[in-house]
Structures are given as C-alpha cells and as structure tokens.
Amino acid sequence: MDAPEPGVGLAVRLPIETERLVLRAHRMDDLDDLTAFHGDPEVVRYVPWPVRDRAATAETLQVKLTQTELVAHGQWLVLAVELRSTGTVIGEVLLKWASDRQGEVGFAFGRDHRGQGYAAEAATAMLRLGFDDLGFHRITAVCIEENAASARLLARLGMRQEARLVDNVFFKGAWATQLVFAMLEGEWRSRADG
C-alpha cells in the first residue's frame, strides 16, 4: 500500500462487527458504561489515565467522540467495544497510525468482562483492520511489565515480545518497565492462513 496523499488519511469503515462485539465510534450515551470502568482502580491500574469520576469521564468522552478517523501520523482511533447481546459498552480498543505503514494497538476492558475472550476478539479485529484494511506493515503494543494478563494476551494474539525497557517510563508516580510486542504483516498473513 502506498502512503496516502497529505491530508487524505486512512479510510476506516465503522462499525466493525465480530461474533460477539461491535467496535464503533463512541456516543454520548456511553457515559454510564464508561464511568463504570474508567472509575475502577483495578481497571486503570496499568493504563495511562487516572481513576476518573463521572465528570472527568464525560470530559474525556468529548475527546473520544472526535477520535473516529486516521488522517495524520500520531492519531489514535479510539472505539467503544459494545457487547452485541446487551448493547453495553464493556471496553475500548485503540489503533494508532504511528508512521508510514506502522501502527500501535491498545485496549482496556471492564473488570466484569475479563477472562471471557472479549479483549482477544476486539484486539484481533483491530489487527485485521490495521493489516488487511489499512495496509500496515508492522503493529506494536506496549504494556507495563506487571500487567501479566495483557502480556499473555499479546503473546496469544501472535505478537512477539521484542523488548523489555527497564525503568523506561515514569508511570503513576514510579519508574516502570515496559514490554514491547510487535507483529509484521507477513506474520499476520501466516497466522490467518494457518
């Protein structure tokens, strides 16, 4: 895939549907669902935002409402993860257009919806978007080393750990070690074919 013309960006078709989930642009009526997990200290322990009350979540939601397209390097596509059976927003997935044909994926899910394969299902859909629809060559993911559940998930997705960056980031009041995972387009294709 050639790099898009300046100002054109990458075309993202929403919503993205999986077997159990709908990945879609945020809406104002997501506020109650988002507040439930944005305000949970256990959920936000390893993500870069603080525990948020309803007012702070509403303020952040205003930004998320604009993060529905990728028109320039450095932008994040931030999508609500809606459970199809209930219409409840149970988490968020992110895809950053890092640079020419490179991306970064991220995710956060409410505590009540962990351990059921939802994060893997949503993250796989974002990898598919990046590799199959947007033509990315490489997609990375970064997590705090203590976040063992995310590291295991990234490995299950077929991403390989490429780096362990000791005390690389000042995170929530202390230096933290980060793990960097990555997958190349060819590896994605091999997994899809296998």
Automatic annotation (TrEMBL):
Q: Where is the N-acetyltransferase domain?
A: 21-184
What name does UniProt use for this protein?
Answer: GNAT family protein
From what organism does this protein derive? Nocardioides pini
Q: Which InterPro entries match?
A: Acyl_CoA_acyltransferase (IPR016181), GNAT_dom (IPR000182), N-acetyltransferase (IPR051531)
